[in-house]
Structures are given as structure tokens and as C-alpha cells.
Design goal:
Shape of chain A: globular
Order of helices and strands of chain A: HHEEHHHHHHHHHHHHHHHHHHH
Number of domains of chain B: 1
Strand order of the largest sheet of chain B: 1-2
Structural class of chain A: mainly alpha
Structural class of chain B: mainly alpha
Strand content of chain A: under 5%
Order of helices and strands of chain B: HHEEHHHHHHHHHHHHHHHHH
Strand content of chain B: under 5%
Distance between the termini of chain B: 32 Å
Distance between the termini of chain A: 42 Å
Oligomer: heterodimer
Number of helices of chain B: 19
Number of strands of chain B: 2
Radius of gyration of chain B: 21 Å
Largest sheet of chain B: 2 strands, antiparallel
Chain lengths: 505, 496
């Protein structure tokens, strides 16, 4: 009797192995007092190893783990984006004393790595089972991370809210996946495509319901309106480095599976779902931009702005073309640069002033703190899509894909949404350059947020020099510089996005 | 060469960031002077009739078909020169004064120059849109951070309103530009304006694309009904920045019609000719009436610009060669008169702390130099025969008479009204009784040279308008070549 050992492509799953090993080591290191100080370093090492292995695997196109995963340029590109976002979030977490230490250094970093692992898996998933498992691997650590600032009632609220809404989204998704399995008879994306193309989506109400439920579930994750209500609260309550990580990486990973599932499994029927997605995008653009208008909390503002930006990006999926997918990848990368620059500045000001993430905390920065004022300004101008920044090229790319895909009306929606968005993005710029610095009054947090669970927010130490620390100023300046650089020399990033986009077609 | 003109201001601005604050202003003025020298070389070197020159055309984003393509021809060369001419005195004017956060101020001023030059030089539709949008960024900062709050409006509020209005137009234009490239493509997507001109768009597409562009341009000018942003912006803006803004940026809109709209959407242009003419005439009448009822000096200058831009638009939409010639000449003329006008207002405001006609007067007694400069500017504004403005308006009216006689009659009323508000402005500030509390002093040598320099250009152009006309004529003809069915008697050359 002969026994065929399954062939394991260790090269292909090497980034996953690096992260898993990192999880074990970091968790253990967090237990021992003597090595606890090394935890951030070890986490960085694991992430850097994963990034290096991903770069090494760039250009591969192969099925892994018996077809459950597919390693191609799209997956690698999104994986790199998630790892990069995690590295920045890790830097921003240095010195985030309350959240990191109350939750435990080892646990905090383990959860972060676990979430990144989920994102890498999700970007590669090409099977309904691996799809759902990796989505949960991504989400569950995030629910906990949102609540790591144990002394703040808002942080706990944020974690709980995210858990409940996230579970609802996951349940909806799972229900939808079951319908699709029932309708097509397979769990493999490619086979689903063949299964349903025989009679068409419209011919089979089961599949149609399934698609609607899957789209809804994913819309929860990406925070597409009208499934966005959790976003501003969760963004505001979570520790800011985690908010930054969620805003950038979760969105990228969820878009990756959104693209892969719809383009690979449902491609034959794109004529049946493209208008629905375009409508969702349009609603999201309007709701996000209007919602952001009156926000004084910068994290809420970026939360709403993220809803609108997700709407722009979803437009690229509605056209379901190679250009559309490339535009999405391009925009997601640019979006990461823009948002990370802004969040780094917000973190710095949160630690320097008692104003938290209120817009007053950045008022008057322009006069004396150029290293913080410029990154925030560039980020806001880029999110607006003004030329000279990568945000402009990103919008250009998306609009070109939309017009080519005969969704010009959605392009007009993007233009109108951008116009609305000016009002709030420029409000931040105006605060930075055109308003005097706010004189910090008594700590705003004291009255409104009761101390709970043995800690008190008043005791959170301020760090008046936070803005000049390398791990905050560095990412802020680097991300802003990248935003400007790719606004002027976009070609390398365009090539990158085109390779990623071509992987599916 | 056109690259040097385009990027010189920004390069100087960026280097200026590393200089001591007190030097940054003079360094910026040096940058503007170098740019002027380069632009003058471009203008002198231009070979009339040889089409696009000093061309740089490299692929910028290959996947999207966007080229970095710039060049000079008869249509834009004098607007480039105007930009450089106007920016130098404005920069030097600001340099002589203490500026809060000076390095940043001059960086923004010079970035504004690069962006404006870029939108004149761009030969790729998307590059044009890029520079068109980029112009907003420096002026947002200049108006918002260095502007002053006025009763009823704050600098930040007024500036935000300006940005939202103008970006509304230009974002639609971005969509329109991309759609133009894609709809006109026969396989390969291009945004080259010259290339697109060879391809034809369906009449249905032209209709909506026309308006996507036209709205952007009309807001920028601003034209009647789309001018809501401008009074507040004019009231809060720092005057040195406002001088270049008013003199040059509004022209980008009119230039856009000649460069983009007329050649690319000829069918729609004919179809909507009368609507745009009505808007232009409404701008002339509304601007003129407002200009002689307002008492705020800035608003008088602002509304007179609305009227003048109405004239220019009417000239463009006469769709005749002499109309286009007159429009280009008038763009240069208006830029040259409104810049010194605003600088004079700045001087008056500095000396007296007043910007209201009712509180001023009698200044000429003790300030003869300033008064004479002002008088020349005022006479040029009202298109006194002998001034280049007269020739510009004459061309425009001739073209209008031949194209649509009714509109010409109404537009003529604008000429009369211009005389009224131009003289009123001069009289109420310089003549009449000297109000209490004002000690008139004549203009300083430095400011006198700056304003005097601009006035000298006005006079030179009045003596020899052919300098402009002879070089622009071919290009102007080309941009309206698709129209004007029966060649009527046209004035191709100014009387020498």
C-alpha cells in the first residue's frame, strides 16, 4: 500500500508560516518579564519577515492547500498592504501606554499579528470555507483590540459594538455562502462560476439571494452605507493606532475578497450585480460625505470619510474590469498612505494635548510644528483628490475605469461627493493653518468619561514631546512624502496596481 | 524652454523655504523676475504660424494615457507673458512688506505662478485639468491664512466658499476630460488636445461635455449667476495675491474656451452659442451696474472684472477670427489694468486704512504721481480710444456685430457703463474734498516703480497693439476655423 503525502508548497505559504511563528513567539515572550520589552521588536521582525517573503513570492500564480487558497499578484499586493499597515500601526502603538499595557503587551501584539494573518489568508481565499474562516481570523482579534483601552468606557463600547455588528455581518455572509453553495453545488470559486453560469443568476433565486447576502455581509466589513452605522463609533472609541490599522488594512483585505469572489465566482453574471453595487457605491458616497460634515472628532471624521472613500473604491468593482480592479488596488495603496499620515498626527496630538482627537487639538499647528502640520495637510488635500498628490491620480484612475465601463453617472457622483468632502477636509486644513492654537482647558475627558475597571483616564500620562518622537513623526512624514511622490511619479505604483489587477483576468 | 518657465517659480519658492525669513520675499521677487525673462524670451522667439513650439511631450502615466505635454503657440504665449509680467510686481510689492510666516507666503505665491503657467502651457487635456485644479491650492492658503476677516464674513469661510464653487466646476471638468478622451478614442486612449481635435465626438456626447467644461470656466471667470463666491473672496484676500488672482486666474477660464471647448466640441458650441452669449451679456450688464453702485474699492474692481470677462466671453463666442483676436488682446489688457488697479487700492488702503469710496477723496492734491498712474489705469479700464483696450473692445464688438447684431447692441452699452464706473472710481478717490483724518503722501519709489512698470506696459501696448495681434492672429483663427461660414470683412491687423 502506498501513501501519497500531500504536496505542500512551503514557499507559497511561507509568509503565513512567518506570521504564525511570530504569533507563538510574541505570545510567549509577553509572559516573561525579562523579555517583555522585546515584544514590539519581535512583532516587527515577524511582520518584516512576512513582508520579505511576500515580496519574494511576487509574480507567482498558484493554488495552495488543495485549492483553498490562491497566491497571485492581487493577493500578494493586498498582503503587502496589510503587513505595511500593521508595521505603521505597530510604530504608532509604541508609547500607547494605556491600551497596550492594560491589555498586556504580549496579547496586544499577538492579536495584531493574528489579524494580519487573517488578512493575508482572506486575500488569498478562493474557497467558501477558507473565505469565511479567514474573515473570522481577521475580525475576532480586532474586536478585542478595539476594547484594549480597558479604562475607557468608549473603548469597551467600541469593542462590544464592533463584536455585535461584526457578528451580524458574518452571520449574514455565512447564510449567503450557504445559499450559494446550495445553488451551485461547489465551494470552490471557479467551480461556483461554472455552476451558476449554466442557468444564470436570475434563473436561480437561491443564488440571487446568496449574492445579495454576501454583498451585504461584506458591505458591513467595508462599511459601505447603509451598513455603516458602526463605523464612526468604533473608530472613535478604539485606540487610535488600531483605528488606523482597521481603516486601512481591514478595508483592503475585505475589498480583496470582494473582488475575488465577485470577479472569479460571479463573473459570468456581472450584468446582474454591477448596477446594484454601483447604487451601493453612490449611496455610500453621499452618506459618508454628508455625515462627515459636522464632525469635531477627527477619528469620527475619518470614519465617515472612509465610508465615502469606500464608495469611490466600490465603483471600481462595479465595472468588474481589469482597469477597475487595478484602480482599486492603486486607490487602496494611496488610501493607506493618506490615512496613515493623518492618523500618525492624530496619535501625536492625542498624547501631547488633553484635547484627544478633537479638531481643536490640531489648531494652530501650522505656525510652530511643521513636522506635524504638513503631513496632516497633505493627507487632507490628498483625500480631497487635489492634484500634486497621489489622491488625484487615484481618482483619475477610478474615474477613467468608470467611464470606460460606461458608469459615467457614478463618476459624476464621485465628483459631487468630492465637492461635499471639501467642506470637512478643508476645515481640518483651516484649523491647522488659519486658527490660533487652542489653549488646553481642563481635561475634556474628565467630566464626560467615567473611570471604570480600576483605571482612570485622567491618569493617562501625556507626552508633550510625542510629536517629535521618531515612531510618530517618522511614519507621518514618510507617508506624506509617499503621497506627494506618487502624485508626481505615479508610474511605479500604476505598474504595481496593473500587475495586481491583471492577476484575475 | 517652456519647462524652465513653468518650473522656475516653484523651484525658487522651494529654495526660499531654506532662506532666512527676511530674505524670502526678495528671493521670490528674483524668481518672478527670472520667470519674466524666460517668458519674454519665449514670446520674442515665437515663430508665428509655426504651430506649437518649445514642445515637451513625455508619457506621464502610461496605463492611463496621460502625457506631460506642454508647448507654446500664438494662443497662449501672451497669456504666459502676462502671467510673468503681473506676478513680478505683485511679488515685489509683497516682498517690501512684512509678511507673517513669510517663507510660506512666498512659496504659495510662486506655486500659484507655476500652476497658472501650467494651465496655459498644458497641451494634454488631463494635464490642463491638473494645473487648473492645482491653482486653487496656493490661493486657498493665501486667501485663508493671510486674508482678513471682514464684517459678515471670515477669511476661512469666504475661502472655503471659493474653493467649493470653483472645484465643483473643475471636478465635473475632470470627469468631462476623461470622458472626452475615452469617447473619442479609436482603440488607444489619448488626451492630447491636438490629437483629440482630429477625432470627432458624437453630437450627443458633445452636448453634455460642453457644459461640464463650460461651467468650470464660467465659475472661474466668474460669469453672472456663477459668481456667488467672488465678492466675499475679494473682500478678505490679501491685495498682492488678489492682484495676480484677478489679473490672471480669471483668464484661464476664457482661455479654456479657446483652447479646449471650441476646437473639441464645435457642434455643441454652435448649438449653445446664444446661451453663452446671453450669460456673457448678463455679466457685462450686471458687472457694470454693480461696479458703479458698490462703494468698496475691491468690489468695484471685482465687478468691473466680471463685466470685462463678459466682454471677453462674448468675443470668443462670436465665433469669428476678429472676435477671438480681440478676446486674447482683451485678456492681456484686462490683466494689465486690473493688477495695477488693485496695487493702487492696496497703497491707498495702507495709507488711509480705508477701502470705501465714501470715506476717500482728494488724494491727488498731495500725491500727483500716484494720481497720474491711477488716471492712466482708469482711462485704460474704460477703453479710452488710443488704449489697447479700445482696440480689443473694438474687435470684439465688430465680430459681434457681424455675428449677432442684437447682442452687439447690448454689449455696446457695456462700453458706456465702463466709462461711468472707471471715472467714478478715479474721481471719488483722487478728487473731491479731502476727508478728515487723511494725510495724503505720494507713492514710495519702490511701489511707484512697480505700478509704473505695469503702466508702462499698458502704454507700450496702446502704442503698438500689433505686437500681440500679429503673433496671436494665426492661432486665434485656427481655434475658430471650424465656424464662421461666410467670410465677412474681417480686421486681421490693427491699424498701424
Amino acid at each position: 500500500m502506498s501513501f501519497d503525502a500531500p504536496a505542500v508548497d512551503y514557499a507559497g505559504i511561507s509568509p503565513l508560516i512567518a506570521l504564525t511563528a511570530g504569533i507563538c513567539v510574541v505570545l510567549l515572550a509577553g509572559v516573561f518579564d525579562r523579555v517583555r520589552g522585546m515584544v514590539p521588536g519581535l512583532t516587527l521582525l515577524a511582520l518584516a519577515a512576512a513582508a520579505g517573503l511576500l515580496v519574494w513570492q511576487w509574480g507567482e500564480d498558484k493554488a495552495l492547500v488543495a485549492g483553498a487558497l490562491r497566491l497571485d499578484e492581487l493577493a500578494t499586493a493586498i498582503g503587502l498592504l496589510a503587513v505595511g499597515a500593521a508595521i505603521v500601526a505597530l510604530l504608532l502603538s509604541l508609547g500607547e501606554e494605556p491600551a497596550v499595557h492594560r491589555a498586556g503587551v504580549g496579547e496586544y501584539h499577538t492579536l495584531l499579528l493574528g489579524s494580519v494573518l487573517g488578512m493575508l489568508l482572506l486575500a488569498q481565499a478562493s474557497n467558501l470555507v477558507s473565505f469565511f474562516v479567514s474573515l473570522e481570523t481577521l475580525s475576532i482579534p480586532l474586536y478585542v483590540l478595539c476594547a484594549t483601552n480597558l479604562a475607557r468606557v468608549e473603548s469597551l463600547e467600541s469593542g462590544l459594538k464592533y463584536l455585535i455588528i461584526g457578528s451580524l455581518g458574518s452571520a449574514t455572509l455565512l447564510y449567503g455562502l450557504a445559499f450559494i453553495y446550495g445553488g451551485s453545488g461547489s465551494t470552490d470559486f471557479a467551480e461556483i462560476g461554472q455552476g451558476i453560469s449554466q442557468e444564470g443568476v436570475l434563473g436561480d433565486p437561491l443564488v440571487l439571494v446568496g449574492i445579495a447576502l454576501v454583498a451585504t455581509g461584506l458591505a458591513f466589513k467595508i462599511s459601505i452605507a447603509p451598513f455603516h452605522q458602526w463605523t464612526p463609533d468604533v473608530y472613535q472609541g478604539a485606540p487610535t493606532p488600531i483605528t488606523a490599522f482597521m481603516a486601512v488594512a481591514t478595508k483592503a483585505a475585505a475589498f480583496a475578497i470582494f473582488i475575488r469572489f465577485f470577479v472569479v465566482a460571479l463573473a459570468p453574471e456581472s450584468g446582474d450585480w454591477d448596477v446594484a453595487l454601483a447604487l451601493l457605491a453612490a449611496v455610500s458616497i453621499i452618506v459618508g460625505n454628508v455625515g462627515a460634515l459636522g464632525q469635531d472628532s477627527l477619528k469620527r471624521l475619518l470614519g465617515y470619510s472612509g465610508i465615502a472613500q469606500a464608495g469611490y473604491i466600490l465603483g471600481g468593482l462595479a465595472v468588474a474590469s481589469e482597469a477597475g480592479v487595478s484602480a482599486i488596488v492603486f486607490y487602496l495603496v494611496v488610501y493607506a498612505f493618506m490615512n496613515m499620515a493623518a492618523f500618525a498626527v492624530i496619535v501625536a496630538r492625542e498624547r501631547e494635548t488633553p484635547l484627544g482627537d478633537d479638531i481643536g487639538a490640531v489648531a494652530g499647528l501650522g505656525g510652530e510644528r511643521p513636522a506635524l502640520a504638513w503631513p496632516l495637510t497633505i493627507s487632507m488635500l490628498a483625500l480631497t483628490g487635489l492634484p500634486g498628490t497621489a489622491g488625484f491620480v487615484g481618482k483619475l484612475y477610478l474615474i477613467e475605469a468608470l467611464v470606460e465601463g460606461e458608469f459615467t453617472w457614478l463618476a459624476v457622483f464621485i465628483a459631487v461627493g468630492t465637492m461635499i468632502s471639501l467642506a470637512y477636509y478643508l476645515r481640518v486644513v483651516a484649523a491647522v493653518w488659519m486658527r490660533p492654537a487652542t489653549t488646553p482647558g481642563p481635561r475634556r475627558t474628565a467630566g464626560e468619561m467615567p473611570a471604570i475597571a480600576g483605571g482612570s483616564p485622567e491618569a493617562d500620562p501625556l507626552d508633550p514631546r510625542a510629536g517629535s518622537r521618531w515612531y510618530l513623526a517618522g511614519p507621518a512624514i514618510l507617508m506624506a512624502a509617499a503621497t506627494v511622490f506618487f502624485g508626481i511619479v505615479p508610474q511605479p505604483l500604476v505598474d504595481f496596481a496593473q500587475q495586481a489587477g491583471a492577476a484575475l483576468f | 524652454m517652456s519647462n524652465a518657465v513653468l518650473w522656475a517659480p516653484l523651484a525658487f519658492g522651494l529654495i526660499g523655504l531654506f532662506l532666512p525669513s527676511r530674505l524670502s520675499g526678495w528671493w521670490a521677487a528674483l524668481g518672478a523676475a527670472v520667470t519674466l525673462a524666460l517668458a519674454a524670451y519665449l514670446a520674442i522667439d515665437l515663430d508665428t504660424g509655426a504651430g506649437l513650439q518649445h514642445v515637451t511631450d513625455i508619457t506621464w502615466i502610461s496605463g492611463l494615457g496621460v502625457h506631460y505635454s506642454i508647448g507654446v503657440d500664438g494662443l497662449n504665449v501672451f497669456l504666459v507673458l502676462l502671467t510673468a509680467v503681473v506676478w513680478l510686481p505683485a511679488t515685489a510689492f509683497a516682498a517690501a512688506r512684512e509678511q507673517d510666516r513669510g517663507r510660506l507666503f512666498f512659496l504659495m505665491l510662486l506655486l500659484g505662478e507655476t500652476a497658472t503657467l501650467g494651465s496655459f502651457l498644458a497641451q494634454d487635456l488631463l494635464l490642463f485639468v491638473l494645473f487648473f485644479d492645482l491653482m486653487l491650492v496656493p490661493f486657498y492658503f493665501l486667501f485663508g491664512a493671510w486674508g482678513e476677516d471682514r464684517p459678515g464674513t471670515t477669511a476661512v469661510g469666504a475661502t472655503t466658499k471659493m474653493i467649493v464653487f470653483t472645484l465643483f466646476g473643475s471636478l465635473l471638468m475632470l470627469v468631462g476630460a476623461i470622458a472626452t478622451g475615452i469617447l473619442a478614442s479609436d482603440g488607444d486612449i489619448t488626451f492630447s488636445i491636438a490629437e483629440l481635435q482630429q477625432r470627432t465626438l458624437g453630437a450627443g456626447s458633445q452636448d453634455w461635455l460642453f457644459w461640464f467644461f463650460a461651467v468650470a470656466f464660467l465659475v472661474k471667470m466668474p460669469a453672472f449667476l456663477l459668481h456667488g463666491w467672488f465678492p466675499d473672496a475679494y473682500r478678505v484676500a490679501p491685495l498682492a495675491a488678489l492682484a495676480v488672482f484677478s489679473a490672471v486666474l480669471s483668464k484661464v477660464g476664457a482661455y479654456g474656451f479657446l483652447r479646449v471647448v471650441l476646437p473639441l466640441f464645435p457642434d455643441a458650441t454652435v448649438e449653445f452659442q446664444e446661451i453663452v452669449l446671453v450669460i456673457a451679456l448678463a455679466s457685462i450688464l450686471y458687472g457694470s451696474v454693480m461696479a458703479f453702485t458698490q462703494t468698496d474699492l475691491r468690489l468695484v474692481a471685482g465687478y468691473s472684472s466680471v463685466a470685462q470677462l463678459g466682454f471677453i466671453t462674448a468675443g470668443v463666442f462670436a465665433l469669428r477670427p476678429d472676435g477671438a483676436d480681440g478676446a486674447i488682446l482683451q485678456m492681456v489688457n484686462h490683466g494689465l489694468v486690473v493688477a495695477p488697479l488693485l496695487l493702487i487700492i492696496a497703497i491707498l488702503s495702507e495709507r488711509t486704512g480705508r477701502e470705501d469710496l465714501r470715506e476717500l477723496g482728494g488724494y491727488a492734491v498731495r500725491a500727483p504721481v500716484l494720481a497720474s498712474l491711477f488716471l492712466i489705469v482708469a482711462l485704460a479700464t474704460l477703453a479710452m480710444p488710443g488704449s489697447a483696450n479700445f482696440i480689443g473692445e473694438f474687435y470684439i464688438l465688430t465680430a459681434l456685430f457681424q455675428a449677432k447684431i442684437v447682442y452687439a447692441l447690448v454689449a455696446s452699452a457695456g462700453v458706456v457703463l465702463a466709462a461711468y464706473y472707471g471715472l467714478r472710481l478715479y474721481q471719488r478717490t483722487m478728487h473731491n474734498r479731502l476727508p478728515a483724518g487723511i494725510e495724503p503722501r505720494d507713492v514710495s519709489v519702490h511701489d511707484g516703480l512697480l505700478v509704473g512698470g505695469l503702466v508702462a506696459v499698458i502704454l507700450a501696448l496702446a502704442l503698438y497693439p500689433n505686437a500681440v495681434l500679429s503673433k496671436t492672429d494665426d492661432a486665434a483663427r485656427a481655434s475658430v476655423a471650424g465656424f464662421a461660414p461666410e467670410p465677412g470683412p474681417t480686421l486681421s491687423r490693427a491699424p498701424e
